[in-house]
Every structure is written in C-alpha cells, then in structure tokens.
Amino acid sequence: MLKTHLQDVDLPATTDRSAFLSTLPATQTDRTAATAIVGVSAVLFALAVPFAGIPLLPMPAFVASYQSALAVADIVTAVLLLSQFVVLRTRALLLLATGYLFTAAAALVHALTFPGLFTPTGLLGAGPQTTVWLYMIWHGAFPLCVLAYAWLKDADGGVRIAGSATKAICASVLGVVAAIIVFTWILTAGRDMLPVLLRDGRYTQVMIGVVSFVWSLSFAALVSLWFRRPYSVIDVWLMVVMCAWLFDIALSAIVNVARFDLGFYAGRLYGLCAATFVLAVLLIENVRLQSHTVRLVGRLRQQSASERDYYGKRLALYGAVVESANDAIITKTLDGIITGWNKAAERLFGYSAAEAIGKSIDIIVPQDRRAEVRGILNRVGSNESIAQHETVRIRKDGRPLDVVLNISPLKTDSGEIIGVSKIAHDITEEKQSREKLRREIEERQRIFETSQDLILVTDGYGNFIQVSPSVKEILGLNPEDMIGHSATEFIHPDDLEKTRGEMRAARRGQIKRSFEARYYHYDGHEVTLNWMGTWSEPVKRHFFIGRDLTDKQAAEAQLRQVQKMDAIGQLTGGVAHDFNNVLTVITGTIGILGDAVADRPELAAITKLIDDAAERGAQLTKHLLAFARKQPLQPREIDVNALALEAAKLLHPTLGEQITINPQLTEDAWPALVDPNQLTSAILNLALNARDAMPEGGTLVLETRNIFLDDGYASMNADVTPGNYVMIAVSDTGAGIPAELIDRVFDPFFTTKEVGKGTGLGLSMVFGFVKQSGGHVKIYSEEGHGTSVKIYLPRSSGVQETEFEASKNVPITGGNEKILIVEDDALVRQYVVTQIKSLGYTALEAANAAEALTIIDADNGIDLLFTDIIMPGAMNGRQLADEAARRRPELKTLFTSGYTENAIVHHGRLDSGVLLLAKPYRKSELAKMLRTALAS
C-alpha cells in the first residue's frame, strides 16, 4: 500500500500578522510598544515646554527638508492604505488614506508658500499669513479624517462601498487636489480678508483661539480612537500619531513664541514622527509578509515536489489496480470514443486494448441499445453519475452479455467534464441464477397460495411465521389471524403435547414426521388434520403440511353407516325370510285348525287370535323385507301427482279433522318408474308419523317437484347418483326431531314413540323401498319447527323434455357481486361457497346470525344475504334478515331451507313473495335465484 502522504505547510503563529492591519486585532506587544513611544514623547515634550520660546537661528532649509520628508512619508502611507482599501473596500480606510493624501498635499503647498524659502514672501503670491493659515487647515483636516475613520470602522473594517474601488480612489485624489487648490487660492488671493494670526513674527490672540480649536480636534480624534474598541493594529498606532500630532501643535503653535524658536523646531520634529509611525508599522509588516512569502514559497515548492512524487506513485498504483481489476474498466470521450481499456475488458469483450482504443463504444453495443448509450453520454455530460445500470453488451464473437454498469464523469482539476469512466461487471451467470431462483420462488409461492392443504411455518418457539391462504377454507380464519400467534392458541388441548413431541423429534434430526392433530375452526368445531412436519436447522423454522381429514372422516362415517345398514338389512332380510317360512306353516295350518273347531266357539276364537297374530307377523316381515330391499316390487311408470291425490283422499279420514292436508303438486311433474303400492304405503307411513308429531293438530303439506341432483350434492351424499328425479315431500308442523337423533331415524326398531305405539319400522321400510327403487331419501327437521321428508325417485326414461326441464337447462349466468352465505352446517356451507365462487361472485360466510351481523356491520359492500331459515341460536334466518334490513335497508335477501317452499310459506314462517331456494338445488337453479334476488 502506498505510504507516501502529503505534509501540510507548517506556518508559525507570527504569520497571522500578514492580515490587513486595519482589521488585524492589536496584540499586547503593539499596545506595549505604542505606550512606550507615547511615554518617551511625553517626557521629551515636558522637557521642551519650558524652553519653547528660546529663539534659534532661522534655517529655511530645515523647513524644506522637513516638508519634503513629511510629504513623502504621507504619500507612501496613503498608497499603502489605499492598497488595503482595494481589497477591503471600507469607507473608514478610504477616509484615513484621504487624510494622509491631504496632509502630503498641504505640506507641499506649505513649503512652496513659506517666506524666505524660495522667495522672500513665498511662491504662489503668498503673504505673511498664508503659511500660518495653511498650517492650521492642514493640522485641522487630518484630525477630522481620523475622527471619521474612528466612527466608521468596526471589528471587520466597517461599512463597505458598493461601487468600483478605482473610482473611489480617483474621487479621493481629485477631492484632495480640488480642496488644496481652493484653500491655496483663498489663502493667497484672499489673504487680506483673513484674520491676522502672525504679526511682526509673533502669534496674535486670534492665533491662540484658532490653534486651540485645531488642537481640540486632534484631542477629540484621540479620544474617539480610544473609545472605539476593539483596537486594530492601525488603531493603536493612530493613537500614537495623534499624541505626536498634539505635541506638534502644542510646541509649534501654542507654547512657543514665534518662528524659528525651539518650540517651532521641536514641533516640526514631532510632526515628522507622527507622519512616520503608521508608515513604519506598514513597512515592517510588508517586510515580514515578504519574508513569510519567501518561506512559504519554499515550502510550497517542497510540498509540490512531494505531491508530484505522491501522485506519481498513486498514479502507478491506480494503474496497477485498474489493470488487475476483475471488472472491465473503460474510459471514453463524451462522443463515445474509447480512450482506456483494461485487461478485464479484454477478457470480457474479446477485444484487445489495441483493437478497442480509438474505436467507438458501439463495437460492444447491440444495435437496439445504441440510443440508450447516447442517452447515457448526454446524462454524464450533464454531470450525472449512473449506478447499477443493467443492460446488454456484445462480445467480439457476437455472444450477448448481461452486464451492470457504474458510470461517472471524468473531470479536470477545474471541474470541466472531459470524458466518461465506466465499470462493467458481467452478471450473465448471476442473472441466470437469479432468474432460476425467481422462478423457483414463484413456483413455491404459487404452490403455497393455491394449495388445498394447510401449509404452516413456525419459529423454534411455535409462533406462526407464514400461513397459507387455504386456512380460510379449512379453519375459517385469515392468515393474519394466526401469524404472530402461538400454535397453542389453535391446537386442541388434548393434542398439544403430542404436537410438541413431534416438533422436538423433528429438531433432533428425525426429518419427516407424520401425525394427526386437531385444530379449532373459527366457528368452534374441531377439524382433524393429518400433518407432515420437518425442521430446517439453517433457518430455524418448522414446516408443516396439514391435510383436512373432515371429508375423509365424513366419507368413512357414511361408508360405515351404509355398511351398517347393509349388514342390518342382510340380517333382517334373513330373519324375515326364515320368519316368513314359519308364518307360512302357521297361516297354512291355522285354517285347517279353524275348520276343525268351527263348531266349538271358544276354540274358534283362539284360532282367530292366532290367525290375526300371524297376519301381523306377515306385515312385520313385509316391512323388514322392504328395509332389506328384498321385497318383490312391481315397478311401472306412474303419474306421481295422481298417486299423491289418491293418497291424500285416503289420509283425510285417517288423520282426522285437526290435521289440514295441503297438496302442492307441480303441474308438469315427470313420471316415475316405481311400485305404486309401495309408494302409497310409504306416503301413508310418512303421513302417520307426521300425525303423531302433531297431537294438537297442524298442517301436512304433500308436494311434488322435478329435481336435478348434481355432482356437488352427490359428493355430499355417497348413495346418490347425479341425475333427474321426481321429488315427493311430506312436511309437517310438528315437534321436530332432535339433531342428535336425525342420523338414527332410519335404523330399524328405533323409535321415539311410547312403548306400544310403534315398531320403529315405518321409516326403515320407506328407506329400504326408496333405495331398492334406485332413489334417495332425505329428512330435514328442527325441534319446534317441524319435519320434512323428501323422497327422490328416478325419472322414468323415454319421455320428452318438459317445459320445466327446459327452463332449468337455460345457460347459467353468474355475476361479480358480493354475497354473504349464512349456514350452520359446515359441509353445506362449504359446498354453497364453492358453487357461488364458481359463478364469479365474491363469497363471505358465517355460521350463525351473530357472525353474519358482525360481517354486515364491517363490510358495506355486501349486495345479497343468502341465509338458511332454520338455524340454532337466539336468532333464526327470518329474524336475521329483518335485523339486517334495519341496519342496511338496501340489502337484498334470498332464503334457503331443507323444507319445501310451500311448507315454509304455509307454516307462516315467510311472507308471501319472499324468495326461497329449497334444498337441494342444482347450480342453474342457484344461479337463476341469485340473479332474481339481486335484481329484485
């Protein structure tokens, strides 16, 4: 590394005196020297005063010499002060220099007019009073200039002139010349009009008054300088000048008697000293400045040599750095001509320095990038630096290169931009790696965002760092609801320790961990997830992928139910078959026995009881065989509306007057292929169950509809085949069935009736008959609201499409509105949300009325409330709709229910004209009703 460094010029403290004396603060040395000179002058003055009137020999040559020396000293002083004024431009300094010029001019005129020096009466027509008055004007004008200087100066020199310094100097000189000419004319041509100051060689009383005034001006100037702090060097020596000036006036014009006495000569000496004090200080300072300048120039030459050596070595070092750099370093002119090309540039672009230097930079620029280069050169020419500019360049062999450029202007010492410096770094491989990494990150992000499984990332303490969007579908939460929270807030307490154990095992190096753990859904129910977990030591993170087992468990439960029902069916079918064999023997032999005892009434009654019991047993086995789907059926194409009307006629006397039967039949109901007798029995069984559920009376609705069960419905009901069905619904307004018993109502021998009031085979027989006929049966019930049993029978084939079917097969139309789905059944809610989203709508979901109202209050953009009518909790669907309308009068509502539309309306739960979509429904029906509701 280069060790040479520059040495700063070491200037001694005394060089500070090279500053202008009018602004340089006076030092203690200045004050001490000035005080000593004033003290000596005062002592000499005191010694001369008693002898001031002693006459001495007249020496006109002394006057000439004194005046010449005085004029020269004042002129030199004025020139030195004006040289400072040219830089400082202060009025105070200009006035002080003007005072010295005036004094010099007055001294010259005084010498010319002095009697006996050149002529007996003096030149220029002077008289005996001319020189005396000139002396007074001369010694009065200078103190006035000093007074002006004292009041105008301050610490930095005082007020500065705004115009040209040369013009100000010329004005000062011309003013002095003009003033001297005027005074000379007055004192020569008009001398007879002036008061007499000197008579017969001696001073008059007027002289005493005039000289006292002049002396007072000098004293005032001294006092002003004394009080105008801070003192500069000139201020101190001006005070010495004014002291000498006072001694001059006192000896030459006050205490002496006449010309050429001791006071006359002594005063002139004080005047000469007064003229030389400031001059001497200025000359001494100039000598010191010159000496210092010589020393400084020597040191600057030494420093310049050192700098040349330093910069030479640094230039050599920089050259070595440039040539050994890994990045290409190129210099060029502002018009793009290459002037520098290091070895890295040769390696990167394939051109040698000899090939590149002198050529245009376009040799490495693609054709479509040359405008870009022109723009860069223009920007750099405007003194702009460009950092980290990614672009493409071309090698000599034609291969494109991805490079990043750092471009700066090249400047001279004066700041002129003469070229461009460019550093090019090859990022071809880096960019390829970066692009590959970007694609991988994007792919992983897409997987993360679209995964149907739940992906979680936690830190070492179990706090969530990332949560995939699928959490909304699986747990009903948003990712931000979990991020930053501990997993313990969401895991089922019974599975918490097991989860912690799996996390600890993963951190011990057991990479893949598979386990099950339950999490809490937003609505409170448990969701079982199968987890695959791993730990990453470099990033200190746990990574988990959880698969929702809800559908799997539901399917398994449904499969177990089907298997159970099949097993029970096999068992009951076998028992019924064997029991039928026994009953065949009993019923066959009881007739013979009855004939034999016909003449014995008591035995005939017994045989009648046995025959009745056998008949009841036959009916029982018939029901068992129906449930087991082993009864002999005689299916044929029937009109379900006609059969329903016949059944209604049979029901009127059976149900009693307290039950109102309300048939609601679709006019264009499809024909069904079914055993009419078994269907009639099924309807009667359902009606009798409805009657038992309404001991105090009520309404029974008998309804038919054409229904299409789609793939979505089939996915939630494993025994359903998608297709067209004729629905026959039997609905009541009875007590309803508790939710926990719904899954058991089709089990044989299960009943909620009192002992002796039912065998528990009625619904089982209906279930078996419908399944044996290839159909589907669904029961909807809510405690306190009634029950609706729907039988779905396959549509008979070979018939023409009806008007109803044609209306259902119109093209599906969706939308982009926002819909709030309120459904307490999680599986159904998930299905509905999926269908609505597939139609293009934005779907929000809630499990109950309370959640729905919270969402309605928080989101003003909801267009439609799609709610189930019967829901657990303090508020049902109708009450929710009323409250929502109160809060948001413009909000539209569409109801849905497992009950049929006619049953709901006639139960009094909905007003006439209110829109209801009965479950189940196909996608086209959902789309049509949504558009109808949104347009209402």
For the termini, the CA-CA separation is 86 Å
Class per helix and strand makeup: alpha+beta
**Strand content of the residues, in percent?**
15-25%
Question: What average pLDDT do the residues reach?
Answer: 79
For the biggest sheet, the summary is: 5 strands, antiparallel
Give the proportion of residues in helices: 40-55%
Shape: elongated
Oligomer: single chain
Q: Which stretches of 5+ consecutive residues score pLDDT under 50?
A: 1-18, 626-631, 754-760, 905-909
Rg over CA atoms: 62 Å
The strand count comes to 24
The total count of helices amounts to 27
Strand line-up of the largest beta sheet? 4-3-7-6-5
Domain Histidine kinase: 574-797
Domain Response regulatory: 818-934
Protein name: histidine kinase
Enzyme class: transferase
